[in-house]
Write the structure tokens for this entry.
Amino acid sequence: MVSDKKSGKRSLKEPPSVYGDLDLRKRYTWLDYLGWHFKERVELIRGKAVKMSPAPSTNHQMVAAVLYTTIIKSVGETACQWFPAPFDVRLPSSSGKDNVVQPDACVVCDSRKIDERGCNGAPDLIMEIVSAGNSNHDTKTKFALYEESGVREYWIVNPVQKYVRIFCLEEGKYTGGAILMAGHQAQSRLFPNLFFQVDEIFSNLIPTEKS
């Protein structure tokens, strides 16, 4: 909503441009989402708008660069396609409420799911780089959504605690998830050529108070 200078009333014709115009208690739909033009990114989880973190930190981007470089090489050898954030993924939900997420990286092998708006359906693999102070969003909220929606493999990459966890979908539930730290190798079950030495993922991080 925006204010009409002449009448003082708020108009519904223009989408909100700041978070202050967004009611976080309200249920929204994919069509609502399409009309938003926020300065910062937002996701739609079970019909509720969820603010994403501000611009990614330097360490977040350093980790992303390492992941992306290997994904390009390994997935490029297959018929699948990969997409970095920001990229809208619309996920199915048993609740019937709309879900739109922007994973840090995803791999989609069914080309029929890809359209001009992003991915309509569950990607085969999703990676999320955990942001400091917002870990529950990736480890709990998104974990449950990705499991329910049928994302076959889910990676959680934590630059603060320097670990990787890989979950694989088996009979509708995620299994695995061992904490992989320095000295371990993180390897995809779906894409055998997609693997990392955990040390290398976090080798260029800038020291912070929490690291």
Remarks:
- The CA atoms of residues 163 and 201 lie 9 Å apart.
- DSSP finds four helices and 16 strands in the chain.
